[in-house]
Structures are given as C-alpha cells and as structure tokens.
Write the structure tokens for this entry.
Amino acid sequence: MIPRRDFLKTGGALLIGFSFRETLPAQQTRGATAGPPDAKQIDTWLAIHPDNTATVYIGFAELGQGSSTSLLQIAAEELDMEMSQIKTVRLDTNVTPNQGGTYSSASIQRGGPQLRTAAAEARLALLQLASKQLDAPVERLTVSKGVVSVAGSPQRSVNYGQLIGGKLFQLPFTGSAPVKSPAEYNVVGTSVPRNDIPDKVSGRYTYMQHARVPGMLHARVVRPRGQRAYGAGAKVLAVDESSIHGIPGARVLRKGDFLGVAAESEWDAVRAAQQLKVTWDNTPTLPSNAGLYEQMRAAKPTDRVVLERGDVAAARERAAHVVTQGYRGPYQAHAPFAPNCALAEVTADSALVMCSTQDVYGTRNGLARVLGLPVEKIRVQYYEGSGTYGHSCYDDVAQGAALLSQLAAKPVRLQFMRWDEHGWDNYGPAHVGEAMAAADAQGKLVAYEYQGWHHNWSAVETSAQLALGIPATPWNAGAAQQVSPANCGGMYDVPNLRLVNHQIPSNDYLKGGWLRSPLDLSFSFASEQTIDELAYRLEMDAYLFRQRNIKDARWLGVLDAVARAANWTPRRAASNRSDAKVVTGRGIGLGTHLVSYGAAVAEIEVNRETGRVVAKHLYGAMDAGLAVNPGFIENQISGQLVQTASRMFKEEVTFSTTNVTSLDWNSYPILRFEESPEVTAVVVQRLDQRSTGAGEEVMAAAAAAIGNAFFDATGVRMQEYPLTPKRVLAALARG
Amino acid sequence: MATQLKIKVNEREWTVAAAPETPLLYVLSNELQLHGPRFGCGLAQCGSCSVLVNGVETRSCVTPVASVQGKAVTTLEGLPAWYAAQKKLPQAPALHPVQQALIDEQAVQCGYCFNGMIIKASELLSKTPQPSEMQIRLAMNGHLCRCGTYPRILKAIQRASKAMTGVAR
C-alpha cells in the first residue's frame, strides 16, 4: 500500500484533499484496504456519527448535475433526517461502493433505489435499537431529524447518534426493509438547493486542476497536434532532446511512442512541451471531412437488425405517402471547459491516482493494465473537473500521469493543454442515417424504417496505445452504440417497423467515445425531420400529426406539455414563409436517450443573406419518472437545450487527411453568450414511476426541433449539421 | 531564469520567485495556491483564468507576471473585499452580490467557468450598474460555458444589479 500518511503530509495548504480523520472520525480504518467495499453490508452505504449526523457513501460522481445533493435527499428521506445532517465523501476505490460508472444518466436511476433501500434498512435497525432502549415496540416509534421518540410521549426519546454513533451496524444489507411510498415524501420531490454551489462560486471548491502534493513534478504530454486515425496512433521518428536544453529544470520521459516532459516548475513543463523537437510519422491515415461520409457509406459494415415488426416493404407499397430522406451528423468533441488533469504517485508496487473519471473502478482496471500492477494495489480518487459530458480524456490523462510517475519515480501532475484535449478526444462518432416513413391518406403512420452507419467507441486509451503498443480495438457493442428504438420511430404507433444498425470498422476513423446523448442528436435530426416531412406532405400540423400517431401516454405527456409551454397553434409547416432577409420558424421534435421521454420546440431566426441561424427560444419537456429534485432537472433541461443549440449550430470536429485540426475554441467554436437562446424547462413529474435518467434526455428532441424549425422558416430541409452559415447558404441556394 | 518579483494580490504583497515571462496564472495557482483563477485554454479564449488588474478583467494565462508589478491584482477570493472598498462599506461581505445572485438562481452546473463569469460580471456592474440585457450579453460574450448556463447567469447578473443599485426594474 501507499504510505497514505506520507502522501498526505501536507506542507501547509499545499495538499488539497481530505483526510479520513476529518471526515470519518469513527472509522479510521475505512479506506485502508482496496475496495470495492462489500455492497451487501449496511456499513458500506452509511455511517452514523455521535453528533447525530450521517455520512452516506455513494458510487456516483458529482459532475455539476447535482447528484451529490439529490442522492442525499433520498437517504435523508428514508432515514428521516434533515439534509443538513447528511454529507457524503469523495469517490475513492478504497472507500466508496461500486455502483457502476456515472454515465447513461444513471445516478438516480440506478443509484437511487440501492441507496433508498439501504437507508430504509439502516433506519429499521436503528428503530430496533431504540425499541430496546425506550422500552417501546417499533410500531410506536416515530422519527424526526434523526431523533426517535415514542408516539404520544415525546420526552421518551433517543437520537441515532446516541444509539450507534461511531459504531458499525455490522448488519447484512438484505434489501428487505420497506421503503416510503411517494405520498409520504417530504424531501424527495422538492427542489432543495445544491450542496456544491456555495463553494463553487466563492473559490473554495477544489477541482482536479487544483490538486497538488509535495514533491511532485508538473508534466505535459508531447503528441502531434491533433490525432490521426485511431488504428494508426502516433509514431515517433526522432526526438531531439537538445531542443530543451535551455530549460534546465525539464526532462524528457518516454515509453514507446508515449512522450512527455516534466519539471518542478509548471511553466518549465509547458515551455518544454512546446519547444521539444519531435519528428512524427505524418503519413495520411484519415478521410478528411470532405471524404468522410462517402467513406463511411462505402465501408463494409457489420449489419444487425435491431428491431423488426410487420412487413415494412409491403406496407410501404400500399401507403398513400412515402418520405425517404438521408441525413448526416459530424464528429463532435466533449471539449470539457477545463482540459483533463490527473495526479499520480506510482511506486514499485502501488499507485494512487487522482483524476476526474466518471467511473473510479473502471479507471482502476485500465491503470492496472497500463502499470502492470494488480488492481488491489491501485487506489483511484475522484476530483471533479469541469463538465465532461461523457468519455473525454479523463482516462487517457490518468494513464498518462501514472506512466509519467512510473518513469520519473516521483508524483506527477499531468495537465493536458487545450490542444491535447481537443485534439485527442474520444469524439462522439459521425453518423449517416437513412429514414423512411409512410402514411395512409388519413394521416396514419403505416411503415417506418431507419438504417444507420457509424463506428463504435474506442476501447484503448491513447496513452496505453502509444506506450505499450496495445492494438486499437473497438468498444464492445451496446445499446448506446446502436440505432436506438427510443429515437427512431419507437415512440410512434406504427405496425410495420424496421431498424438496422450498420457498424463500420473503427480503425480508419477518429477515436470514438460516448458523448452526452450518444448518437441521439443525429438519430433524431434524421428521424424526426422525416416524420415532419410526412406531416407536411399530408398538409397536417406537425404537432397534431405526432399526437395522432402516438399511443404511449408518457410520450404524449411530454409532447402536449411542450406544445402548451410554447403556445403551439396548429398550422402546416412552412406556411408562414416570407421574403424578408431574416425569417423565423418554429419546429417540434421528440427524442431521448434510451430511457425517459423528451419533447422540444424551437423558435429560430434565419438570416437568408448571411446564413446565420440563431435559436431565439427553446422549450424542453422531460418525463424522467419520479423527479427527486425537480429544480435540478429544470437546470439540466436548460443546459441541455443550450448545449444542443451549440452542437446544432456550431460544433464540428475538423480534420485533414493527416490530423484533427480543430484544436481550440477558435477552430472548434461553441455557442456564446450573445447567441444564447431564452429557455423554458418543463418537468413532467411522475410520482408513481421509477426515476430514470435526466442528464441527457431532451437533447435529441431539441436537435430535431431545430431542424424542423429551419424547414418552417425556409421550406428547405437541412440534411447535415451543424447549421453553419456556409452550409445554410449552400442549402438555400439549392432550394 | 527565476527572479524575485513583488506582486500585490488581494491587497497583500507577495514576493515570488519566477521567470518574469511566466504567465500570472501559474504563479497564482502554484505559488499562491489560489483556486479562483484556473487553467482553461492558455490562449485567452475562454475566460476561466480571469482576474482583475487595477479593476480591469484580464486573462492571467497570457499575462506575464512581471507586467503586473506595481498593479493591484484581485482574484475571485478577493472580490468581496474589492467590492467593499469600491462601495466604501465598513467591512467586506461574505460574497460579492454577483456570487450571491448565482447561488440564488442556482445557476451553476460544473462551475468551472464561474470564476471568469463572476470576475467579468463584477467588472461590468462596477462600470455599468444597470446594464441592459444586450449590454450583459456583449460584455459576457468572451466567457464561454460548456454546460450551457448562460440563461441563468444572465438572470443572476440582472438580480445582482438590482441588489447593488436598490432599484426595482
């Protein structure tokens, strides 16, 4: 094990972090051994302290979505404690349970039920202890603020802290304790403010980028500016170490094609990385933006029918109206606002790595492979970085820091530069979609088909690939990498439906990874514009056409909610067009990410002379089942709408035949303040439904609404995004 | 080569050893261990490293440390005191009104960009106590947010403006 005490020995304020003595006075041994702690023990989930407060251990990362508050609401509710009595701790593979990673909007969906039942079981155990102490049956006990009292005799009371404070429950977690019914909720379902915001606005919050330990070196990686094809990696032809001799504090660290520089002073490391002369293999390996979609369609894919019912071909033959359209969506970057950072101390037989991973246990597995150490010798601690929105470079930077620490035999802090993060991301993959929708003369959907082409995510981090020569392999297929029934026709009542996924080989393309609402924006942009076009051909209003073809009450719920919020008045699309220079349009769309239900309306402005498109007002409605904290979901919807506007109007990874060329905020612009839309967020609360994800489930709908609003404004379908001025002018010219 | 430099940050004099061309950000982060200004791009494109230099919003990631000698640097940590001095308040409040308004609006998501947002908004309100919506948008346009919190930041600045001027708008 790492001598944790030495590592934490602080030199005053230098060490940022926490010590277990501060957070866990009762359990100094917690954290001493490798986790995950046993999920089948109550003590793994929570601890009661003598001062009648509780610490709850959760396996989900705070990413700015508020889950470190909302999960506590669930625990507070079942324990009958106040929010002020409950706190949580940093994610740590020696301390916190393994609940799977913080992706697919899983915190509340997967983490909530587990925590709820654990807290309920702990409460029951506490009541049994109180029953003995107060000499009253459990049925006669009531709890408020962690104080147990006998009904009718409030003076006969004892608090949780007195019952078990500082001691372990030592009870198995069976999941058998009854939980509250939603009707009894006092804390769940209310919009309590977030725990993390006061420190975040005052400058007291410790982001990963702030963490320092004594004796560490600052490091930077040295890579080509912008990645090549995933399968090609990067190949060092020559390194001229004399090129940094003018920076005496800096040294070159190298393993295979993995190259870095380290120095005691951060500025020396930054300068050395810029000055080091490296000759890279520059052989072209990429199709470039210009050849991308053609190469994707020409690739030999692995085909899979995701869903099929009825006879699509026969129904299409008989249909009165058939629309077939093709759409394209670009690679987009996570581009976290802060480039990823990690701090590692690796010794001959152990490693401690601090990083901003969304999955501490998953990251630990990757580190074990790279370092050649058993997982139980590795400890990973989570420090929040800036919003990652999926698999940005957090694993890559963690592995890079660990490799550099191993090479330097010292603690190393590796901070990616802007071009490292932008240029070596696991981009959200590009997509080509072909959609067909057919209706009878009365406007009833009779057939639907979607075929989608894209490659899978990357399974190997760049640091590992370059250092160890691990061959590039694709991530195993999963629902989030497949044509999605939830976005492609699944919300409609259509008897004949067929969805086909064409997975193309990944090695000739950019590295891929899950980017918030993976592929969904592309699916919905294609599918919901095809549906919209069908409504247009039928001379029907886009909202009423959808309403007529949906039976599912929850899809109808969000559709109606958003239409109401936007004061939608029925008319045929593109029936209000004008010859003005700046025209306006509105559109509606549906979509989600696997679970939950999203609907959106977009009101946009198109300047037909400049090609500039601006969203003036975006409306989003989401049904994520029981909304534990509706205020957080409103904030999520609001952020998702703005981020979708950014992705639909601005964002596209650019690359030549040799390298990615979008390496900063100028070459990869995102939406700015000036163009930020007004937003209206509607949370459809469903107390009787289990909570499902809310962190990415209205983006697909908003992407579609924007596409449909453009058609309403101009009578032209945009078949590729982002809707940049150049692309818009070309589409308008084609008519 | 590192030299001894005297800089004034948050009303306190510091002597730091750094090469004169070192970007101020690295000195603030590593020598002074401040958490307000933070690395975002190193290119003056995003605003996460912003500080006030003599009251003017400045990107510390491209500002040589030697160039702020003899000037007053204010970081997020020193903003309440800077505000108190401007307003001639007897003592510094716990938070600048912009900070309080961001809490009241629950505007934050990941919060990483908020250093720059708060610094810029404070500068704006010190010069233009009652900005129009368009003035706010234009002033803030050089500060990026990846989470898409612009609408709530806009509301928070309007709220802070009200609080600071005591005017119902």
